[in-house]
Amino acid sequence: MITVWVLFFGLACGGGSSGGGTGTPPASPAGGCTVSTAISAGVAYCIDFVGTSWDPALAESRCDLVSDDLVAGGSTPATYEAAGCPGGATAECTGFEGIPGDSNSEIVYYYYEDPPMVMAESGCTDGGGTYTLY
């Protein structure tokens, strides 16, 4: 289950955006959910819905919930991207269950700022995920 802290751990601090990402997320048939911050000029991070249990309607619905939570917390809304997360990621965080109890669903966070958000690595590993810097 996505916990609120996992959604917001990267929003507390931001890194500067200087481009240069080399990570290209695999195409996800379910789509992705992009989040920007006031600090970043573009996408700060993207939530990728991975696994056969996700379909576009379910992924978009989950992205809408993320967006509602972000807006309620005073942040910018998230945007559902049918084409999935964009290329150019600088880091990723894996190892999060997507749909509770469903082994065919996962959520992967991709980060786009260079360097990635200050709290990205600690938030990922503290939550039980695996952080990879590209």
Short description:
22% of the residues lie in helices and 25% in strands.
What does this structure look like?
The structure is a single chain. The protein is an alpha+beta fold and 134 residues long. It has one domain. Helices cover 22% and strands 25% of the residues. It is built from 3 helices and 6 strands; from the N terminus they run H-E-E-H-E-E-E-H-E. A 6-stranded antiparallel beta sheet has the order 3-1-2-5-4-6, covered by helices on one side. A hairpin with a 6-residue loop joins strand 1 and strand 2. It starts with a helix and ends with a strand.
Kindly state the percentage of residues in helix: 10-25%
Q: Give the tally of structural domains.
A: 1
Measure the end-to-end span. 26 Å
Integer average pLDDT: 81
The major beta sheet can be summarized as: 6 strands, antiparallel
So how many helices? Answer: 3
Estimated radius of gyration: 13 Å
- Strand arrangement in the largest pleated sheet: 3-1-2-5-4-6
Judging from the principal axes of the Cα atoms, what is the shape?
globular
Share of β-strand residues: 15-25%
Give the strand tally.
6
| Low confidence ranges | 1-21
From the helix content, strand content and strand pairing, which structural class follows? alpha+beta
- Compressed to H and E, one letter per element, the order equals HEEHEEEHE
